[in-house]
């Protein structure tokens, strides 16, 4: 990855290292429930990825590994990577405590080709991942390179329209472009699990439209099986969302103007 992004990645890594301790103690991640057998995966990805038993799975941007370990519990042979060394340290500790066989590697996504050996049946990534990446063309190429022939890539992510709003303002203000090549910098108190946490989050991110995401994958030779869009989110991470009867969250009725999530499944022919 070009040196011009080095500063951005260093700032983001420092913030995510600080977030690990807060997140791992939060109700949001419910680590005790997880240790007692609760899955961290949601209905969307469980249904759309399907049976992973006996399959090798590479989880990109895995935070401190709960989803990786949830796939491991379902029978996949998992490898999780993340930028944060604190996240990987916590993931390894959880793996040992639960007696699972996942592998965790500290790695910037763009260093995966040199840090992760072999090819996989499934490459998986989810919820709040795309925005940390300045270059999706290389991202798509890395995914294609890490998939076996016939392998599946699956992404579930917050919709790009969601990231056009500045949530530090009340009400949220339409402030950012649908897609952009320049970094967006934000600095705010707390984190999405606790607005009052004693942390100043300093973050560089990039907005990517659906066209850019799809083109990165097809340009790398992957075949798009589907693109789904959803009006509900399993996470209450945006202001004034309404809880639904199925324990999901959605925009207020009068404001349902855009989807909250999208998912993509792609295959390597």
Automatic annotation (TrEMBL):
Keywords: Methyltransferase, Transferase. It comes from the Bacteria. GO terms for biological process: methylation. Pfam families: Methyltransf_11. Residues 59-155 form the Methyltransferase type domain. Gene3D superfamilies: Vaccinia Virus protein VP39. InterPro entries: Methyltransf_11 (IPR013216), SAM-dependent_MTases_sf (IPR029063). GO terms for molecular function: S-adenosylmethionine-dependent methyltransferase activity. This is Methyltransferase domain-containing protein.
